[in-house]
Amino acid sequence: MISFMGAFQFILTGALTLGASRILHYYQASDDIAQWVYPSVAVFSLWFSSFITKRENNKELQGKIRLERDKWKGICCEIKQAKDYCIEKIIQHESSSSKRNELLIRDEINRALVELTANETKILRLVAKEEALLEKKQRAN
After folding, report:
1. How far apart are the C-alpha atoms of 45 and 39, rounded to whole Å?
2. What is the CB-side half-sphere exposure of residue 123 using CA atoms within 13 A?
3. Residue 36 sits in which domain range?
4. CA torsion angle 77 78 82 84 (round to 10)
5. Total domain count for the chain?
6. Is 15 helix (H, G, I), strand (E, B) or coil?
């Protein structure tokens, strides 16, 4: 399929050739001039063709570059979102884990205090019993 610019180039080349032949015929130019004009039209057509082709190739290349850049931007954004999600989950886990650890430590401290209080009461009873026995022994002597 011929692109718009290809068709335009074909029509422009034909129009320039036709125009040049009409001008040469009107002025009844010699063959020497015609040998100069027709190759000039052909060279201009080749230059115009290469210019249009280069321009279309540049547009196509820029489009591919833009698509590739957008693809990599999307990948980088997905990686950043995944990283942020992981960091958020780690922070949530650490805070809940540290709260859990704090509760366990607090419970263990309370349990130790209760046991210490119970043992302290036993120790006080034993000390009182020992003092009573010592007093009884001293009276007996």
Report:
1. 10
2. 6
3. 4-140
4. 20
5. 1
6. helix
**Two tokens at 23?**
């001008």
pLDDT tens for 33-88 read 777 777 888 888 888 888 888 988 899 999 999 999 999 998 988 888 888 888 88
Cα–Cα distance, 56 to 37 (Å, whole number)? 28
Nearest residue to 48 (alpha-carbon basis) of 7, 78, 99 = 7
Q: Which amino acid is at 23?
A: I
CA angle at 75 for the pair 71 and 78, rounded to the nearest 5°: 140
CA–CA distance, 105 with 112 (Å, rounded to integer): 10
Number of H helices, E strands in the chain: 2, 0
Query: Where do the H-state alpha helices sit in 3-30?
Result: 4-26
Which tokens hold the place of 123? Answer: 């120790």
Which of 2, 45, 41 is closest to 20 using CA atoms? Answer: 41
